[in-house]
Amino acid sequence: MVIRPLEHGLFAAIVDVLGHGPDAHALTEVIDTFLDRHATADVSTLMAGLHQRLQGSRGAAVGLCAIDATVGSVDYVGIGNTGIRRFGASETRLVSKDGIVGQNMRSPLLQSLKLEPGDVLVLYTDGVSDRFSASDYPSVLLHEPKEVVRVVLDRFGKDHDDSACIAIRYGE
């Protein structure tokens, strides 16, 4: 996971390297360093650069988002089993394209959402069930982001898989 300020907002990345153990951990560090150094609002170009950097590796599922606080929008690109949801006046789920960054990635699909103050964005890996909604977690808009992460992982995390989650509240 990488979270970095941008000139007009925030960059966030969620990553799930394929496999387990020391080699997977080492690749996670390579990805985190790359994203930390190159964080940008242009998430499509960044995803293409990361794919190039990871060629020949075991690969990863990656979700990248950039929030532009000046216009209240989020851009998202995801490859593999990652997801992002917006909770607020309306609930929206953006989907990631099939593939593995570093192996078989097609052109990233840039998706955008308009944000309202108080909206909560939740980025997650496939260790979190994709079948949850605001009705399953009605207090999602009342909790602080740290608590949202804890609840999502506790209530919707899968027992048989590792999981990661980032929660961001917009405009507060």
Describe the structure.
This protein has 172 residues and is α+β, with helices and mostly antiparallel strands. The chain has a single domain, classed as Phosphatase 2c, domain 1 (4-Layer Sandwich), CATH 3.60.40. It contains three helices and nine strands; from the N terminus they run E-E-H-H-E-E-E-E-E-E-H-E. It has helices at residues 22-38, 43-53, 145-156, and strands at residues 2-6, 9-17, 60-68, 73-79, 82-87, 92-95, 111-114, 120-125, 165-169. A five-stranded antiparallel beta sheet has the order 1-2-3-4-7. A four-stranded antiparallel beta sheet has the order 6-5-8-9, covered by helices on one side. The longest helix has 17 residues, at 22-38. It is globular, with a radius of gyration of 15 Å. The mean pLDDT is 93.
